[in-house]
Structures are given as structure tokens and as C-alpha cells.
Amino acid sequence: MNDRLLKLLLLFCLPLALFGRQRTYDHLEPTHPAYVPWFTGTLLPPSAVNASPGHPILAPFVSFTVTYGEYDDNWNFKGTPNTWAINPYLEYLFGINDHIGVDIYASFISNFKKGQSSTHLQDTTLLLGFQIARDTPNTWIPDIRLLLEELVPTGNYQKLDPKKLGTDATGQGSFQTGFNLIVQKLFPINNNYLLLKWTLAYLFPAPVHVKGLNAYGGGKGTSGKVFPGQTLFFYFSGEYSLTQRWVVGFDSLFEYQQKTPFSGNPGHMLDGTPLPIGRGPLVQLTLSPQVEYNLSSTSGFLFALWATVLGRNSSAFATAVAAYYICF
């Protein structure tokens, strides 16, 4: 059960931007005969552009998730009792100047499993963005943005209640520092537009002191230090405008995390067997088809599905998401 708890936690604590607002393309109006494209941005990676100074962006959303299984160390799938989750999320972006911006992502989650439930904050993500380049029409110059990331452990991760069946684990307990490099380019296709985005992210987690049942395993008598593995994320995303208001999109995400070892007293079962804690290397591939409806160049809705394709030492899940953004 403890290994299953860690796999479930890694799903709900992914340090993803979740709904990154795109730039506006009003500058295309004089040169394109059809329309100026409007995009909300896809669900998973951060935005490829900073928010404009004086025009902050607010993006609330809610997701509904069922975790129905797990993948073992040999990539084999096994069904598990369903864990359901409702996850409200808030994204706030603001620009300091034309080249520097800040993104803040905060959330809480309610988990439900076999009659047990818990509601807690999740870990909070802070991003400092540097705009390296902006997409220039009729050239190969794309949007390029470099983000410095800090994951702050505001979620619940240790001294968990065994009766809660893991529903009270909502954080990793680790400060995690890293970066995101995002490249994005708009391509006119006949009278419509294709927007492609590539994102590379890497996180360096700090060790975590744990006691008792915790997000990484253990139980009664556990006391020591967990060393979460460094994590690589690669996203490939796209949006295609059917009309100015209607857009279809997708995200694909590959995640790899190194093994997560433990040092200390793991605690013991009644027969003297050490309690399991930590995990082997994690691999997960997920896909997310999406539909956008834009009210204007500064506001719109996003509807998405997100699900596991394959994995190793990871959970299997399906998620539905509804989001709204507004640029002031």
C-alpha cells in the first residue's frame, strides 16, 4: 500500500503549470486576410510568454480525477480500488517589465477512497520567467522563455493517518528547484493557424525528513530522510484554430524521475519485516486532447481530458478539466 501511496501522490503533486496563457497576435491583423487567432494556451506546460506589465492574468480551473490502477517496475498494469479527486486550482501571472514575469500556481485537493476523504493544500509552484525571444512573423524566430522554478512544500506529506488510506497525502515535503525552457512558434496554414510548443523542464528536489506514515511509505516507527529523485519533463503541445473562437489542442508529456531512496529507520511490521519506503525509477507518458472557446483576445474557456498511456512505478489515471482565463 505504501508504494501505491507514493505513485498516487506523484500524480497529484506534479509541478506543472496547468493552463498557461498564450500571447496575443493582434500584430498579425494588417498582414493576414482571415482573422487574428485567439488562444488560451494548452493545459499542462507553462506559458511561452510573460504577462504584459500592467495586465495580470488570472486563470481558475477545476479538475476531476479517478486513479484506477498502477504500473509496476516491469511496466505491467494492475487495477486498484478507485481514488477520486476534486482539484480546484488558481494560476496568477504578472509582468515586472517587458522581459521579466512571475507565475504563481496554488491549489488544494479533496481525495475520496473507500468511504475515506481528506482535503488539504497541495505544494505551491513559483516561477520567474525571462523572455529571451518573441515570435517574429515570416521568420524562424520563435517565442523563447526561460523559467526558474521553485516548488514550495505547502502540502501534507507526513504523520499521515493510516485510516485515511492515503487520501491525506497531498504534498512531497521537499523544496524543489529547477528550470523550464519553452520554445513556441506560430505557423499560418491556409486561412487558419497552427501553434506548436516544446517544453523541457528539470527539477532538483531537496532531501525530506519524515516520521511515521508519510507520502513515501513507512509507518509506525519510521524516522529518517528521503531523497526524492531528480525529475525530467518533456512536453510537446499544439493548438490549431478552426475559427477565431474555436481551437483544438493537445499536450503530450513524458516524465522520468530517478529512484527515491531512504536512509534511517524504516519502522517494522509485526513480524519484524522493515516497512517499505521509497521507490524505484518512475516513467510516465500521458496525453491530453483539448478544446478551447475564446470570448475575446483576453478571455476564454478550456476543456480537456488527460490520461495515462503507459508507465513504470507510476499511477494510471483519467482526468477531466474545465478552466477559464482572463487578462485584465
Give an account of the 3D structure.
With 328 residues, the chain is mainly β. Helix content is 3%, strand content 55%. It has one helix and 16 strands. It has one helix at residues 2-12; strands spanning 57-71, 77-95, 100-113, 116-121, 124-133, 143-152, 176-189, 192-205, 208-211, 223-226, 231-241, 246-257, 262-265, 282-296, 299-312, 314-327. The strands form two sheets. A twelve-stranded antiparallel beta barrel has the order 1-2-3-5-6-7-8-11-12-14-15-16. Strands 9-10-13 form a three-stranded antiparallel sheet, with no helix packed on it. β7 (176-189) and β8 (192-205) form a beta hairpin. The relative contact order is 0.21.
Compose a concise summary of this entry.
The protein is mostly beta strands. The protein has one helix at 2-12; strands at 57-71, 77-95, 100-113, 116-121, 124-133, 143-152, 176-189, 192-205, 208-211, 223-226, 231-241, 246-257, 262-265, 282-296, 299-312, 314-327.
- The gyration radius over C-alpha positions equals 21 Å
Distance between the termini: 46 Å
Oligomeric composition of the shown chains? single chain
Query: What is the helix content?
Result: under 10%
Strand content range: over 45%
Question: Could you give the order of strands across the largest sheet?
Answer: 1-2-3-5-6-7-8-11-12-14-15-16
Average of pLDDT: 90
Tally of contiguous helical segments = 1
The number of strands is 16
The chain-level structural class is mainly beta
For the biggest sheet, the summary is: 12 strands, antiparallel, barrel
SSE run: HEEEEEEEEEEEEEEEE
**What is the overall shape?**
elongated
Instruction: Outline the low-pLDDT stretches.
Output: none
